[in-house]
Amino acid sequence: FNTLMAVIGGLCHSAISRLKETSSFLSQDVTKTLNEMTDLLSSCSNYSNYRRVFSECTGFKIPILGVHLKDLVSLNEALPDYIEDKKINLNKLQQLYSRISELIQIQASTPPFEANKDLVHLLTLSLDLYYTEDEIYELSYAKEPRTHRTVSVPPCKPPVVVDWASGITP
Predict the structure, then answer these.
(1) Per residue in 120-157, pLDDT tens?
(2) What Cα–Cα distance (Å) separates residue 4 from each residue in 16, 90, 98, 112?
């Protein structure tokens, strides 16, 4: 799920999503799948689609950690530490424990496959490539220069990356 969020976020970047002529070469199946994956990761209703599918998955899975960290922060902020007569709020502690235990269980599971060394090497090298926003837009405009015609294309609903960790400061 985490990698899918990164891929969909990248494809929905405005410098990519503006490439209407290029995207017109995608098959209907690919476009349909992209829309389904975008809907899956939509921040609507507090990521309800993602949460539903994630809870239905069994075995190895990589969560969108930001969504789960946001839950922990929200829970910690929403419930008081103490209740009447200065008693510790055990309900809050139980809920925090439950959420953290789920994440620890996920972390303990091992993938049912071996890492592809060539792919890991390629991805490691790609981390050294860095483009500024201006450079990304230059590449986008080089591929498809601006036109003054308006094309009616349904907008890509990007996942709201900022929502992953709102309220969390480094």
Answers:
(1) 898 888 888 888 889 988 988 999 988 755 555 555 55
(2) 16, 36, 26, 18
47 sits in the region (left: phi over 0; alpha: psi -120 to 50; else beta) called left
- Structure tokens given for 92: 């809050």
Q: CB burial class (10 A; 0-12, 13-18, 19+) of residue 37?
A: middle
Cβ atoms of 37 and 4 within 8 Å: the answer is yes
Structure tokens at 28: 């209907």
| Number of DSSP helices (H) and strands (E) in the chain, helices first | 10, 2
What is the torsion angle, in degrees rounded to the nearest 10, for the CA atoms of residue 149, residue 155, residue 161 and residue 164? Answer: 160
State the pTM of this model: 0.70
Whether 132 and 36 have beta carbons less than 8 Å apart is answered as no
The structure tokens listed for 87 are: 């008693």
Please say whether the beta carbons of 160 and 46 come within 8 A: no
